[in-house]
Amino acid sequence: xxxxxxxxxxxxxxxxxxxxxxxxxxxxxxxxxxxxxxxxxxxxxxxxxxxxxxxxxxxxxxxxxxxxxxxxxxxxxxxxxxxxxxxxxxxxxxxxxxxxxxxxxxxxxxxxxxxxxxxxxxxxxxxxxxxxxxxxxxxxxxxxxxxxxxxxxxxxxxxxxxxxxxxxxxxxxxxxxxxxxxxxxxxxxxxxxxxxxxxxxxxxxxxxxxxxxxxxxxxxxxxxxxxxxxxxxxxxxxxx
Length: 240
Fold this sequence. Notes:
9 helices; mainly alpha
């Protein structure tokens, strides 16, 4: 079997999974959270949620799928990049797994507002205003949990960037972009908890958009340099 075809297919699978992860994440953020949650008005938020329950459930499903595809993407990239440095590729998967688990648990905070506002009998002891306040409380808790997940997202793209830079079969510029993304991602977490500023946090996420979408486009369109992959694999085999 032609290993070059296997490597190119693995690269394209990784690119496709990365694209799916980004699309599900963007849908959940733009079409779900930004569309329903109004930070300054809990009454409007409650009305938005109750008027768009199906959209809410789609948003939750999108976040779950994003987390699962996040892990699958890392596994595909592990298969592609392990010959460069297996320990570093393993660290990438470990950080991804931790981030995936954290994101999954954080979805509980995201889904809580729907159940709080939907009129379950055991919540009848709370007034309408109290339910609205609780819904906003859990949503804010979700946002903080998401930023904690950002720590692991930054940590997984750091070894990814270093592996790409060392690989020789993917342009080094993507490795540099991912390292920059990791640094800015960790800085965004510090800003979020130390001196919260949504504008600064958004600006710090710009390198993430540049790095990820350019990398995905490269994998899907160009693939990888198969001849360089064979050289890396040969060196790896000789080292064993």
